Amino acid sequence: MTAMPTRKDEAWRYADLKTLGALWPTRAQELRALSGASVTLDECISGSGWRDERVEISIADGGRLEGIIEQVMNADGVATQLYAVTLGAGAVADLTIINSGGRYGRLALDISLHEGAALTLGGAIVGAGEQVLEIITHVRHHGPNATSQQTVRAVLGGRAVGSYLGQVAVAQAAQKTDAEQSFKALLLARGATANAKPELEIFADDVKCAHGASVGELDKAALFYLNSRGIAPRAAQALLAQAFVDDAITGLPEGAAREALLARLAALVEAA
Fold it and tell me: How far is Cα 86 from Cα 155, in angstroms, rounded to an integer?
């Protein structure tokens, strides 16, 4: 059993340590390993209690990783999931993660890219009530000519707390790296809180790296325009919230996961 983290650990600075403190003495993290040239994820983290798992994924040179990680624990549930991913030379990963369930939900990804690998990651945080939801990413560029693009959106109501901590680390050998991070949060209530900590650690001198973060409310001009076209206020708010997260879930196909996310957004707007 490892020691419980503290706020001195940057990766846990916004975590719900009060909830974890009651659970940590019984920690027995499960380990699961996946490997191959092609891996498809269809992860639905659900139920009650505490889900605590480390998933190790290794993709061979030229291989492909794609799919969905969806955290929808019950209202009293806690999830602290870690996905450790290694992408071989020329491998491609296209992932969508949704964090919307439980009283505390933490989805952490530690992704290593070797020469010519490419990562596209879209993430959505949707929280209400007293929820604390986090997406934590550590993207490590080990080899040259690799690319990573992270797009994370959060929509928060009630007194929910949504956090994105994303670090991109570029090794000295990782010349020609192209890395982007984008985080935006939409607050539907004054009691909601968004935390953002994008971070770049670069030891190469021929790279293209960028990050950005912003927090705001619904665009009043856009709401007025939709209302003037006969769209009811709540429906207009729901449309804007859906549009807000849309560029983060472009990899999410039509189906149950997308429908559930949009329904969750509509319910969040209705309760705001």
Answer: 30
Is this model's pTM higher than 0.90 or not? Answer: yes
pLDDT digits (tens, 9 = 90+) for 74-87: 999 999 999 999 99
**Rounded (5°) CA angle 86-43-98:** 90
In angstroms, how far is CA 20 from the centroid of its own chain? 20
Where exactly are the structural domains of the chain? 10-216
CA distances (Å), origin 99, targets 71, 76, 79, 138: 5, 15, 10, 17
d(CA 121, CA 99): 13
pLDDT band at 3 (very low <50, low <70, confident <90, very high): confident
Both tokens of 240, joined, read 């804007």
- Identify the CA nearest to 130 among candidates 76, 180, 167, 85: 76
**CB proximity list for 133: less than 8 A, separation 6 or greater:** 71, 99, 100, 102, 104, 105, 106, 125, 126, 127, 154, 160, 161, 162, 163
- Residue-wise pLDDT for 91-123, tens only, equals 999 999 999 999 999 999 999 999 999 999 999
Predicted local confidence at residue 1, as pLDDT: 53
